[in-house]
Design goal:
This protein is about 20% helix and about 40% strand. By secondary structure, the chain is an alpha+beta fold. The protein has a ten-stranded antiparallel beta sheet. A hairpin with a 5-residue loop joins strand 5 (about 110-115) and strand 6 (about 120-130). The protein is built from three helices and ten strands.
Length: about 180
């Protein structure tokens, strides 16, 4: 699971410019632990269509000469995962889509790693209010995944936002997963 990679050697930094908390509170840990579990995609065709619409909306704002390449890359990096696994321990969260993803400290400290395509990426996880937030700061763009549980904890909604200097309009869509 990665964000958009269009081909730039510049590290974007805006996502990780936020202050990092000094310690993880019990309240933060309790909020994060509520997400712990395995989920399966439950958004149906409507959300599948929503991803394609979001990609097309973003591409409409770029040069027609590069749309085909941009479309291909965005479709590859935004394929809808069937499975979501969130694992929380006393200090870190692992978020895996179809078995691939990243583990990072829950305090928001960026962790330098590589995407499955081999690109440099900084990943951080933190709790903001009732949301678990994953930030991926990559060479060609940034991705923010905001995870929000429903009232009963049986479903998680993932609000995805992809930004890049190559995309004047962000790619934004929502995915819904139900707990297994």
């Amino acid at each position: 699971m990665t964000g958009l990679v269009i081909g730039s050697d510049v590290w974007a930094g805006s996502l990780h410019d936020l202050p990092v908390p000094a310690a993880i509170t019990q309240d933060t840990l309790d909020h994060a632990r509520a997400f712990d579990g395995n989920y399966v995609f439950d958004g149906g065709q409507k959300q599948r269509d929503g991803v394609n619409e979001a990609i097309e909306t973003s591409l409409a704002a770029i040069n027609p000469m590069v749309r085909k390449l941009g479309r291909q890359r965005l479709q590859e990096t935004n394929a809808i995962p069937k499975n979501l696994s969130i694992r929380v321990d006393d200090e870190a969260v692992a978020i895996l889509f179809d078995g691939e993803g990243h583990r990072a400290q829950l305090d928001g400290t960026p962790h330098k790693t590589e995407s499955k395509q081999g690109d440099k990426v900084k990943v951080s996880h933190r709790v903001r209010g009732t949301k678990l937030v994953e930030l991926l700061d990559g060479v060609g763009g940034d991705r923010q995944n905001d995870f929000k549980l429903n009232a009963g904890g049986s479903r998680v909604t993932v609000q995805v936002k992809i930004t890049s200097s190559h995309l004047p309009v962000p790619v934004e869509y929502q995915l819904t997963y139900k707990r297994k």
